[in-house]
Design a protein that fits this description.
Elements: H1 2-16, H2 20-31, E1 38-39, E2 42-50, E3 58-67, E4 70-76, H3 77-83, E5 84-85, E6 88-91, E7 95-99, E8 101-106, H4 122-137, H5 140-156, E9 159-166, H6 169-179, E10 182-189, H7 200-214, E11 220-226, H8 234-247, E12 251-255, H9 259-269, H10 273-279, E13 287-291, H11 297-305, E14 309-312, H12 314-319, H13 327-332, E15 336-339, H14 352-367, H15 375-382, H16 384-389, E16 407-411, H17 423-430, E17 436-441, E18 444-448, E19 451-452, H18 457-475, H19 477-480
Parallel strand pairs: 1-5, 2-6, 2-7, 8-9, 9-10, 10-11, 12-13, 13-14, 14-15
Antiparallel strand pairs: 2-3, 3-4, 7-16, 16-17, 17-18, 18-19
Helix pairs in contact: 5-6, 5-18, 7-8, 14-15, 14-17, 15-17
């Protein structure tokens, strides 16, 4: 508004040439400190801005202006600093300013099962170890502290949004909100007694209350999480989709994640998992499909036609030997593809920088082509592609005026990242999660100069050790009887 006034006054002076004393008065006003500048709450200046906007602009000596929860301007530092003033200014010299990373599929509360059962196939890992361990250990308090542990790791590593699927999801939402993080959080629906709900009907009732509680929240998107076709009946899958669509919430589900699922689907349903889900009416533009590995060209066409978002989990899929997602073919078809960690029990961390590195290299080795999935495409998957997969691309995923102010500052001066010739290459192959210096979500600083502002790190780590002893006791041979 002030800037518009000044422009109008300048035009007036040029057109009508009023008496000198009026010209002098206007010039004095314009010269007053801050008079001609618009207000912002935060400026991040003098960094290399990787916008991930439609033009994929990279702005040297760039800056971002933030007002409230949103970005109001992106451009050269000289431009932004001349137009805006703010009480808080972050100097990002020698650093990258980029959209926050989007973790498209996680089970945050599984962090307390990190390392209890490694080097196993997915079906054996789930049925012999994870499901029993959850039955013996998972309570609401367990979920609270385990989720805090994952949030601590994700935030320190530059993740600003994650999609979760677990139990006691209302508690997950509460601690996610306390941490200042953005979450698409799906309450798990499963056809056997779960830690929070012993029957499917109870799970549906809990999920409805969960959705009602968080509707309209600026950070939390409540979702419905039918686990998979191998843990749910057709009726439960359809009822889960109906519940989500009555409430206009996303549906998060594992799709075609391992060979055993593909075999089971063909034997039981006479179709691939994707074709079966199409047949029963579950697929749609509100679906977030985790893994989507065992898909053929017909499946990819179906997923793309229905607008399903899919998330690639390279480290988890490699570790459980679940297979390689055909990312190249899916991207070529126009599929929305994000990047994800999966739960820390199967990968065994929540490090999105590691996932970027592995995603690129996995496609190259699988296709014997070093040009497959170049670095820029991988950064897209971790940012704007991830936003598309979560159906949130109008709000997050790129640094555009009007979008939510979710962004990170990544140092580039460490030995492992020096020198930097190409910013995308550096982000994927050289930078580490420890290089993240500052994290801003919804316009609020949650990590500043590597200092966690919203979570008590020492308390979380102490609680993790306390729970480790309980989990170990529960896994002892005597406890299993």
């Amino acid at each position: 508004m002030i800037r518009q006034f000044c422009c109008a006054m300048t035009d007036f002076l040029l057109r009508f040439r009023p008496p000198m004393f009026i010209c002098s008065f206007v010039a004095l006003l314009v010269a007053l400190p801050g008079f001609a500048k618009d207000k912002a709450d935060l400026l991040i200046v003098h960094g290399t801005v990787v916008t991930m906007d439609a033009q994929r602009r990279v702005i040297d000596d760039g800056a971002i202006a933030v007002l409230g929860d949103s970005i109001v301007a992106v451009g050269k530092s000289s431009e932004i600093e001349s137009k805006y003033e703010a009480p808080k200014i972050i100097d990002a010299r020698g650093a990258i300013i980029m959209p926050g990373l989007i973790n498209g599929h996680a089970h945050a509360a599984m962090s307390l099962f990190r390392g209890i059962a490694d080097d196993l196939a997915l079906d054996e890992w789930l049925n012999k170890y994870i499901f029993p361990a959850e039955a013996r250990n998972v309570t609401e308090d367990f979920v609270v502290w385990a989720t805090r542990l994952s949030l601590l790791e994700m935030l320190r590593g530059g993740t600003t949004t994650y999609c979760d699927m677990y139990y006691f999801e209302d508690a997950v939402a509460r601690v996610t909100k306390e941490a200042g993080m953005r979450g698409v959080l799906a309450e798990t629906i499963i056809d056997f007694p779960a830690p929070d709900n012993k029957t499917t009907q109870q799970a549906f009732e809990y999920t409805q209350k969960f959705i009602d509680h968080w509707t309209g929240d600026p950070l939390i998107t409540a979702a419905v999480g039918p686990h998979s076709i191998y843990t749910l009946s057709e009726k439960t899958l359809q009822d889960s989709a109906a519940l989500a669509r009555r409430n206009h919430t996303p549906i998060a589900i594992h799709i075609a994640e391992a060979p055993f699922e593909l075999q089971l689907s063909r034997e039981k349903h006479g179709a691939t998992p994707v074709a079966y889900l199409e047949r029963i009416g579950l697929l749609g533009p509100d679906v977030i499909g985790a893994h989507c590995i065992w898909v053929d060209s017909a499946d990819i066409a179906i997923l793309t036609r229905f607008g399903v978002g899919c998330t690639h989990n390279p480290s988890s899929n490699m570790k459980t030997a679940a297979g390689v997602m055909p990312v190249i073919d899916m991207l070529a078809a126009g599929q929305a593809i994000g990047l994800a960690t999966d739960g820390a029990a199967s990968n065994n961390n929540q490090d999105m920088f590691e996932e970027m590195d592995l995603a690129a290299k996995l496609q190259k080795i699988a296709r014997c082509d070093p040009r497959a999935l170049p670095a820029q495409q991988v950064v897209e998957m971790a940012t704007i592609g991830g936003a598309r997969a979560l159906h949130l691309e109008k709000q997050i995923g790129s640094l555009d005026a009007g979008k939510k102010a979710d962004l990170i500052v990544v140092e580039t001066g460490a030995p492992h990242a020096t020198p930097m010739y190409t910013v995308y290459s550096s982000l994927v192959y050289a930078q580490k999660s420890a290089d993240v210096r500052t994290v801003i979500i919804n316009g609020k600083i949650v990590v500043e100069d590597r200092r966690m502002l919203t979570l008590n790190e020492s308390e979380i780590l102490a609680k993790a050790e306390e729970y480790k002893r309980k989990v170990e006791a529960s896994l002892a041979p005597s406890a299993a009887k």
